[in-house]
Amino acid sequence: MKVCKFGGSSLANAEQLNKVMDIVLADPARRIVVVSAPGKRDSGDTKVTDLLISLADAASTGGDCSLQLNAVVERYAEIACDLDLGDEITERIRKDLEDRVAKVADLSKPEFMDLLKAAGEDNNAKLVAVAFEKRGKKARYANPKDTGMVLKGDFGDATLDPDSYTTLSRAFSNFDGIVVYPGFFGYTKEGKVATFPRGGSDITGSILAAAVCADVYENFTDVDSVYPCDPRIVEEVKDGEGIPTMTYREMRELAYAGFGVFNDDAVIPAVRARIPINIRNTNHPSEPGTMIQQSRRVVPGTVVGIASADGFVNIVVEKYLMNREIGFGRRLLQVLEEEGISYEHMPSGVDSQCVVVKEQFLPKEREHKIVGAIKRELNPDFVTVERDLTMLMVVGEGMCYTPGMLAKACLALASAGISMSMVNQGSSEVSFMIAIRSQDRDAAVKALYKAFFG
Ligand code: ASP
After folding, report:
1. CB 396 within 8 A of CB 302
2. 94-115 average pLDDT score
């Protein structure tokens, strides 16, 4: 069985929805279809989820919100009309939205916001089920409450209650036809609607794939495959090949440094259950896309991708004879822990220790306080803070046991006149990190792409 998830751009209008139905019907194994709310029809358009957020805001202020409500209904009405589904589904959606809006006085703002945000996916799943039936296919809408998608945590940032897996797998053990399932939300134990973070339909798909032990989790979006580096930086990457297969480890390393196909947290359920994830394009369904799995055939000496992420800060602590001082590293990290700062990398020299953190944890305003605490706790000779750093990640299982991979990267950067600020490679050898000044980022990514893929 396959679980397939379609994002908002794949469901933005009737034409896209027809493509989705063609894809699902082309393979009888595609039994569970997870849908997002309708997304943007063009670059100037607004996603239904954003329209719903505006509706929730307007309703919360107590004024007339019929304009905002109509804007949402219009999006579904257009699709229903173009697919000739009749007026009933649109009227059901209008009624559903009115019922939700009427709850404004009974709920806290975050609860009310989630109730409205969830309406995008919920109503779309109902509409998509009707569209399948119009094509004469047996399809039904499944509700996250009835199937046991129990969430916990904060509204707007909920996570799955792990006990849900048993109920979810039972809910799907006995069904025929196609099940259309709304992404992005579930219910708390108390029966309240709660949503995952934005983009959370990916999480729903991943959870269901794990719950039913799917053969594959197909994530349909609008790219043919994952590119080996950011096409906004290296345009010619689009003319080359996408990544046919990568391992979970490679995906994680690349996602860490900004490969944004989907949020890597979203796929944790599928990864833990060892379900292969296939990223595919709704607009080019014949393309095999990128398959992400536990292992793959690896060609020694090859790299799968090059990622870059801006916004890092390096705290450099220097102290003569630091290497003899037992507990120095622990006390340094303790200062950061007490300040709630998570660290990313820790390259070191004999008498110096660097700690790389994300800029968001150490904005300029906090620098004085943190540096002061480090000075008090460790009595160093110098503490300096370097800002505007970019991390380059070169990733590939094929680098393991292959001499010269880092040398190749260094040579490429040297030839481009780029100085490296730090280098870090773990013993897994599946990736290495090179820190550079952010102003050199584009030139560096281009140089590395040419060296490894050119
Ligand atoms: N519709 C929601 C959003 O725009 C969730 C999703 O599409 O995955 O964030």
Report:
1. yes
2. 96
